[in-house]
Amino acid sequence: MTRRTVTSLLRAIGIAVIVIGFLGPIVWMILASLKTNVDIYDPSKVLLFRPTTANYATVFGQSQYIDYVVNSFVVAAISTAASLVIAVPAAYAMARFLMRKSANLVLLARVIPGVSLLIPWYYVFSNLKMVGGYFVLILAHMFVALPLIVYIMMSFFEQLPEELEESGQVDGLTPIGAFWRITLPLAAPGIATSTILAFIFSWNNFMFALVLSSAQTKTLPVAIFDFIGYASIDWGGLMAASVVVTVPIMAIALFTQKYIVTGFTAGATKG
Amino acid sequence: MHPLFIPAAPKTDPGKESTVTRTTPTVVSEQTVSSTPATRPTSPGVPQAWSAWANRHRQWVFAGPAMVFVAILLVFPLAWTVYLSLTDSSGSVRRAKTFVGATNYANVLTDTARFWPAVGRTVYFTAGALVVEVVLGMLIALLLWKPFTGQAIVRVAIILPLVATPVAVGMMWRLIFDPTIGFANYLLARVGLPPQPWLADQTTALPTLMFVDIWQWTPMVTLILLAGLTALPEEPHEAAKVDGASGARRFWHVTLPMLMPTVVTAVLLRGIDVLKTFDILYATKGLGGGSFHEAETLNVYAYGLSFDYFEYGTASTVLILFFALIVAAVIGLTHRKKVTK
Predict the structure, then answer these.
(1) Contact list, A114 vs chain B (CB under 8 Å)
(2) Which long-range contacts (CB under 8 A, 24 or more apart) does B157-160 make?
(3) What is the mean pLDDT of chain B?
(4) Which residues contact A85 (CB under 8 A, 6 or more apart)?
(5) Considering the domain boundaries, does residue A53 fall inside one?
(6) How many domains, in total, are found in chain A?
(7) Is A190–B326 a contact, with Cβ atoms under 8 angstroms apart?
(8) With contact defined as beta carbons under 8 Å apart, do B97 and A137 qualify?
(9) Nearest to residue A199, comparing CAs of A105, A110, A74?
(10) Is A45 within the bounds of a domain?
(11) How many CA atoms lie within 13 A of B338 on its CB side?
C-alpha cells in the first residue's frame, strides 16, 4: 500500500468513528424507547427485539403530557418572537454605531450564571403573584433568546455594506425607512438563523422553568426530570419522554442545517 | 467554500432590490415616508416631528428597548444579589433579614467542606472538558477540512448532539452508563475489560459527566474551527508546501498560528458555558451533586442553596464569587485574544 492509500484509509476510519460516536447514542436512545423494560434490562439485545409503542402510550397516557408539549412550544415561540422584535433593531444600532459598551451589557446576560438572577426574579414575581404563570416564564426565556439574537445579528449587520442604505436615503428614505426597507430584508438569512437558534435554546432550557413554572405551565425538560422522582426508574418511559423532547428539535435542525452552522459560528472568524 | 460550512451570507445582487421595495409598508415607513399626511386626522406636523426625532435619535430608539429589558432583568437583580450576600436572608426572601456585612464571605471563603471542593470541581470539570473539546474539535475539523464523499451524514452527526436537549442527553447517558443494564459496561465486557461504576461512584462520576459534555459540545468547537480553517488564505500553506514542510510542520507553523484568534474565540465561548454547566449535572446526579457531592460544581451548589435549602444569603455570596471567577476568566481570555491578534 502506498502512503496515500494508508492516509485515506485512516481518514475513512476516523470519519466512521465520528459518525458512530455522535449518532450511536442517539440511535440507542430511540431504540430503547421502543423496547419493553425487560428488553432494556438485557443490553445484548441491541437490534433484535420486538418493538413496542407502550412507552409512548405511558408518556402520553399522563393526562398532562400534551399540555407540556404545548407549553414548551408556546413559551419558545413567544419568547423568540418577542426577543426578535427588540433584539434585531438593537443589534443593528450596536453594529452601525459601534456601541461597544451597550453590546457588552447585553452580552453580559450570556455570561452571568442564571441562578444569580433567579433568586431576585423569584422574589419579585412571587410578590406579584406571577410565579408559575406563562408571562414570567416567557420573560425568563427571552433573557436566553435576546442576547443570542443580538450576538448573531450584530455579526450579520457588520457584514452588510452601508452603501445600499445610503443610496436608499439619497432616494428619499429616512434612516429608519432605509433600515426597514433595505437592511432588514437583506438581513433575512441572519434573522432566520437567530430565530432557529433562539427557539432551540428556549426549547432546551431547563433551569428557569425548573424554578419558575407550575404544574400547569411546566415545559418538557422539567417534565422529563420529574419522570425520575420515583424509587425505580421506568427506563422505557424515560427514554420515550426524552425522544419526545429531542426529536422535534432535531427534525427542525435537519431541515435548517446551514442556518444552525451559521448560528453556532457567528462572529467566530472575525478574530 | 467548505461544503460543511455554507454560511447563509447576505446576498447583495441587484435582483434583491426589487423585492426590497415591494415590502409592505408598516407603521414605521408610514411615519417616515411623508407621502400619507392626508389620511391623518391630526396636524401633519406632529408625526413628522416625531419621525424626525426618532430618526435623529435612532441609535437609542433601536437599542433602548433591549437595553432597558436587560437592565431590568439583569442589573437590578445583580445589585440585589450583592445586597442579599451581605445579609443573613434565609427561609423566605420576604422574611426580615439583618445586615451582616462580610460575614457570609468570611464563612464561605473558609468553608472547606462544600465551597472549596465545589470550586475545585468547577475548575477540574471546566479545564478537563474544555481541553478535550478543543483538541478533539481541532482533530475532527482537520479531518473534515478537505471535501470527501458522505459529508452530508457527517454534518448531521455533528449537528444533532448540539441541538439535543441537555436534560434528555443526561438521561440518555444515564441509561448507557448504568452499571448493570448499561450499554457501556456491556461493551467493556465484550472486549474483556472490567465493568466501571461510571456515574454511580464518587471518583468516576465527574469524569463521566465530562465525557457527556464533551460528546455534546465538541461539535460546536469543530464547527467554529472549520469556519476558521475555511476562511484562511491559501498562499502561506502552499508556500510552506513548496518549501518542503511536512503536514505536521505545516500545521504547527502555518495553520495553527493563523487560526489562533478563532481558537481563542472557541475557547472563550465554550469556556463560559462549561463553567456554567448545570442541566446534565442536575439531571443525572440531582440535588447536591450526589450523595458525596461528587458532581457538585459552584452552579449546582448555588442552585441547591437557593432553591432546596433556601439559604439566600450564603447562596448570593457563592454566586457573587462564582460570577467573579467567570468574569476573571473572560477578561483573561479576551486579553489573550488581543495579544494573539
Answers:
(1) 276, 278
(2) B157/A18, B157/A19, B157/A22, B157/A23, B158/A18, B158/A22, B158/B219, B158/B222, B158/B223, B159/A253, B159/A254, B159/A257, B159/A260, B159/A261, B159/B219, B160/A22, B160/A23, B160/A26, B160/A250, B160/A253
(3) 80
(4) none
(5) no
(6) 1
(7) no
(8) no
(9) A74
(10) no
(11) 5
- Asked whether residue B6 carries a pLDDT value surpassing 60, the answer given is no
Q: What is the pLDDT of residues B156-208, one digit of tens each?
A: 899 999 999 999 999 999 989 988 888 888 888 888 888 888 888 888 889 99
Q: Say what the pLDDT of residue B7 is.
A: 42
User: Does A246 score more than 60 pLDDT?
Assistant: yes
Domains belonging to chain B, first-starting first, are: 112-340 (1.10.3720.10)
Structural domain that includes position A119 = 62-265
Q: Is residue A131 part of a domain?
A: yes
Residues 134 through 153 of chain A touching chain B, CB cutoff 8 Å: 139, 142-143, 146-147, 150
pLDDT at B53 over 60: yes
For residue B179 the three cell numbers come to: 452499571
Q: What is the rounded CA–CA span in Å between residue B108 and residue B322?
A: 12
Q: Does residue A46 form part of some domain? A: no
pLDDT tens-digit series, residues B78-113: 888 888 888 887 777 677 777 787 888 888 888 888
Neighbours of B226 (CB within 10 A): 26
A247 DSSP β-pair partners: none
How many CB atoms within 10 Å of residue A134?
Answer: 17
Instruction: State the Cα–Cα distance between residues B128 and B125, nearest whole angstrom.
Output: 5
How many Cβ atoms are within 10 Å of A203's Cβ, its own excluded?
Answer: 25
The CATH number of the domain holding residue A144 is: 1.10.3720.10
User: How close A3 comes to chain B (CA, Å)?
Assistant: 13
What is the residue whose three cell numbers read 419568547? A79
Of the candidates B63, B165, B302, which has its C-beta nearest A245's C-beta?
Answer: B165
pLDDT at B39: 41
Give the ipTM: 0.90
Within 217-256 of A, beta carbons closer than 8 Å to B belong to 220-221, 224-225, 227-228, 235, 238-239, 241-243, 245-246, 249-250, 252-254
Contacts of A203 in chain B (CB under 8 A): 165
**C-alpha grid cell for residue B25?**
409598508
Phi/psi for A131 (5° steps) reads -65, 135
| Residue B307 CA: distances (Å) to CA of A8, A50, A208, B91 | 54, 43, 12, 10
